[in-house]
Design a protein that fits this description.
Length: about 160
């Protein structure tokens, strides 16, 4: 019985492309990728929290390659052949400081479907991110996906030291 489910999904996809066109289906797939990437960013934030509680440091804060290695070591068993340091759009996940309404704060980013570091509405928290270091001039869409580490590092020495 369960073996037929992938066949039904495939047939449904073929029917959707025939009925609505490839562009509409691609938009739906991109939305699903955005949702999954948001979940991955939140999972990364929690893994950073566990690392900080265990070792007293935020991994890869000073070096992008160290952050990629941290992600590789933490998530490789769960991703199979996919690179854990990249989102579903092929962009590297980033650990960087974001500019919020009033100050800078640490956040984990995916540059989203357009691949540019343009702007991001937070997955959690209440701040609206309008820009970040390394913004690409002229990029449009504001489709970045990010999560602030304020929540993940709550009630830790990191939060108290950086207030």
């Amino acid at each position: 019985m369960f073996k037929i489910i992938p066949v039904l999904i495939m047939l449904g996809g073929i029917g959707a492309v025939g009925s609505y066109g490839g562009d509409a289906v691609q938009k739906v797939l991109d939305r699903v990728r955005v949702l999954v990437t948001g979940l991955e960013v939140m999972n990364i934030a929690e893994e950073v929290r566990f690392h900080y509680l265990s070792y007293g440091e935020v991994p890869g804060l000073d070096d992008h390659d160290d952050f990629a290695q941290f992600l590789q070591g933490s998530f490789a068993p769960y991703y199979g052949s996919r690179q854990p340091s990249q989102d579903l759009f092929g962009n590297d996940f980033e650990l960087n400081y974001a500019l919020g309404a009033e100050d800078e704060f640490l956040a984990i980013y995916s540059n989203g479907p357009n691949g540019f570091g343009d702007a991001c509405a937070l997955v959690n928290g209440t701040r609206q991110v309008t820009s970040k270091p390394g913004d690409v001039p002229g990029a449009t869409g504001a489709d970045d996906i990010c999560v602030t580490l304020e929540h993940a590092l709550r009630d830790t020495d990191y939060e108290r030291k950086n207030r």
